[in-house]
Write a structure and sequence with these properties.
The complex is a heterodimer.
Chain A lengths: L1 H8 L14 H4 L22 H11 L19 H24 L8 H11 L3 H17 L3 H31 L8 H10 L4 H11 L4 H30 L3 H32 L3 H28 L7 H18 L7
Helix pairs in contact in A: 4-7, 4-11, 6-7, 6-9, 6-10, 7-11, 9-10, 9-12, 10-11, 10-12, 10-13, 12-13
Chain B lengths: L5 H4 L15 H4 L2 H4 L6 H4 L10 H24 L8 H13 L1 H17 L3 H26 L10 H4 L6 H15 L3 H31 L2 H17 L3 H10 L3 H30 L9 H19 L8 H8 L3 H11 L14 H10 L7 H13 L24 H6 L9 E5 L2 E5 L2 H9 L1 H4 L5 H6 L8 H7 L26
Antiparallel strand pairs in B: 1-2
Helix pairs in contact in B: 5-12, 6-14, 7-8, 7-10, 7-11, 8-12, 10-14, 11-12, 11-13, 11-14, 11-15, 13-14, 14-17
Classes of the chains: A mainly alpha, B mainly alpha.
Amino acid sequence: MSQVRARRRKATWSLWTERRMPSEYEAVTYRYHYHFRREPAPFELSPDWSINQWYLKYREGSAFNVDDWEGVRDPYRYTYRHYVAARHEREVYVDNLIDEFERHDHDRSLDGAWLDFLGRVVLPARFPLHALQMSAAYVAKMAPSSFVTNMFHFQAGDEMRRIQRIAYLAKALALDNDRADLADSAKARATWEEDADWQPVRELVEKHLVAYDWGEAFAVRNLVVKPILDEFVNVEGARVARASGDELLALMLDDFQDHDTRYSRDATRAVVDHALGKNPELRGVLQGWLDRWEPLGHAAAEGLARLFASAPKADPAEAILGRVGERYASWLGDLGLELRR
Amino acid sequence: MPKLQRQQYYDLTRDMNWHFRYVDEAEVFPEAMSKSLGVPAEEWWKWDEPYKLTFREYTYNQVDKDTGIYSIKSVTNRANLYEKLDSGWRSAIKAHYGAIPVPEYLASIGEARMARFGRAAAWRNMATFGALDETRHGQAQAWFPYSLIDKDPQMDWALKTLHTNEWGAIAARHLFDDMFTANDAVSTAIQLTFTFETGFTNLQFLGMAADALHVGDMEFGALISSIQTDEARHAQQGEPTLRVLVANGKKAEAQKMVDIMFWRSWRIFSLLTGLSMDYYTPLEYRSMSFKEFMEEWIIKQFMDQFKDLGMNTPWYWESHFLPELDWYHHGLHLGVWFWRPTVWWNPDAGVSPAERDWLEEKYPGWNDTFGRWWDVITENVRKGEANKTLPETFPVVCNLCQIPIITPCGHAIGKLERPIPFMLEYNGRQYNFCSEICRWIFKEQPERYHGHLSIVDRLLAGQIQPPTVEGALAYMGLTPEIMGQDADNYQWAFAERKAAE
């Protein structure tokens, strides 16, 4: 039957079932995960092989499931080449920014208290941001459709982009200001592992890595950990950077927020909207995970608020926490979810 | 440009290793996903990639590469180049497109598993690039054949193959799922990136790219050479993983991983690359024989690199692997051509008189062994009895590699002592194998394989109805316009001279 139809329409995959022709994006994304809900097991090995069982339990067995995941669409319709071209533009922009600021010897214009803050807060943020790269990879590998997987491969790339620009600044600032401590990996790790205000963040981040149900992994990463970290690192980070005259960092963080964070949020919405459109009862499943993770998320946000309040000329922690909480709750509300304490 | 060079700040892009406090490290890196073999966390932190790269460099490089391949594609499309290609070559690229794009895309899952469960941030970064690379390879290698479906319906199988139970699809899934889609991070680094990508994809990609350029298939040649530049980078995750294992007394475990996957890769590449190089590629454009490619790329270059790392050649190297270079893929070719309705491309017999001369030159003795069977086939075709060259029964399939067992062929030409399959009783069930090595692999890790049913097991279990050739073709998803036919419509059989005389 499909053959007859395929011949009349000419030139498209016989697996494609819609009447209209697929776009390039769809033709190279549609139904690449042959293993989802495959019988008797996802992979062509013994059905009881541990990794078959892992997928049966955490993917096929997840409460966050609908009859068809192939209908999810990346709002940006990114194929690999379009994603890479889009990020290449951003990287050229950031290169130009750095170039321009370096020409004016920007790094040496920053004061010591601001550098101390960077050393305690912004530079060690590499650790939790790397954990977001890890969890993006996990969701990518567990997702039931390539339309979802690819959006998480790209988010993993975006985390790498942000971390590596922060790494660049760490080294440049260390060299220009004779502050070797800023580029000292052992010191950054010690701050991450021992600083009291980082610990609730670390607890959230470590625990989110072991949320193995694919739906919960998606929810805790994209509805809890990433939005909270982005609000602080990108938005509050840019704010305190401007207050201390670090316009270079502020502009870089703006770029991550305007492009990478926006991408992540739009991707999140695409998955949530698709799932709830298919089965409105899944709202309860997502809300349940949000509620379960809220205490850890809140404690992490309090820690981050204290950390960002330690910047020169920063607002008090309560004020930072309050406005971050408002923006976060409002974004969740747009998704049809609630931040419940 | 920013003033700092990559090497000045690179270490800070990959120093995000820490000790877990709020969850157990073993829970973050469970053995099923990570398989770190008891090597302590901080030992893994020493993981040091030989090929260093930042995200910004990645985007600069990859945009250029993609511009290159997609612009060639638009030129060749306008020139209607595909119609001008030799039919055997078209079979070679259709076999490739059916077997490779979706598995390459699925390799992004294996890469993502390493990007999550690899034990060092440096490794996880490289694997993140790897996941992006494999997304590129899956998409580009699907998009190119996609544009050719209206010219050739078999191109549809670039997406469809892995969704079917076609026997080659089962073999491909069994191999690739074992190697990366359903493999742990450490084994994936050793088996996918080190053994397979460093060794065998060189063979398929560089070898086929060289042939493509000779044939005039600029599109395929440019595509796969561009892909190979990514592979050459992300394949380098294997070496540092191997170094950590060896430094921590796990050389034997690493060696076994290599021994297993080298053999499995050899099996599938004999099928895919062996047939393409020695039978499908037009004679005048062949740069080397499959055996010569194996000798150059695998036996010499790959194994030199392997030995430099303190590893040994697989234990079966002299006894089982080298002797197969002379015959195994010739036997498979005979089988695939005979069972041609069961594949998604048109097998090219590749045995015209001139081609037989070439085969005899590259594989002395070919005429007296394989040539005699082809004589019978040629006679039947000449008598107008091509129906006698089509299958009425099923071959027995190996319970490990899932490729038909051709031990009778090996025995008939004096390469194997006995014609019967290698057998094993395990948990009250009998398993059949094509070789002692496939049986060894099964025995080493039965937990991965024991409950799997080969296509023949499924037939015997009543899952294929009716249990006839027609029923099996339907089970395999093959429709009349896809089923393979002789690529040249038997013209080779009527060529002037019979070379065996």
